[in-house]
């Protein structure tokens, strides 16, 4: 839905720019360091718009590339953290198994003790 609004906004903006440019067909002089050229105002407007779009895209692509690089770095850190976490879980599982074995051995060692059982006869 958000993408549709962007497309609608761009279409409306383009219609406004083209309408404005068509109404301005007067030839205007463009002064260079070495000379002057007369160009229709519509061409100047559209070229400036195109130049602005290109500059905006270059800036966006630079920011996008930086975001992708940061994303790759963070994904690597996440993989390392997951591997470390799994190693710690395996270590804790090993310790738990050792403690259970130790507890079982101690229970077996104390199994031969006499236990008092009161008689139910009176």
From TrEMBL:
Cellular-component GO terms for this entry: plasma membrane
InterPro entries to which the protein is assigned, alphabetical: LapA_dom
Chain segments annotated as transmembrane: 7-34, 40-64
Keyword Coiled coil in record: yes
Coiled-coil residue windows: 64-109
PANTHER family in UniProt: MEMBRANE PROTEIN, MEMBRANE PROTEIN-RELATED
Superkingdom, taxonomy of origin: Bacteria
Pfam families cross-referenced by the UniProt entry: LapA_dom
Annotated organism of origin: Dolosicoccus paucivorans
The keyword Oxidoreductase belongs to this UniProt entry's keyword annotation: no
Keywords attached to this entry: Cell membrane, Coiled coil, Membrane, Transmembrane, Transmembrane helix
Domain Lipopolysaccharide assembly protein A intervals: 23-83
Annotated protein name in UniProt: Lipopolysaccharide assembly protein A domain-containing protein
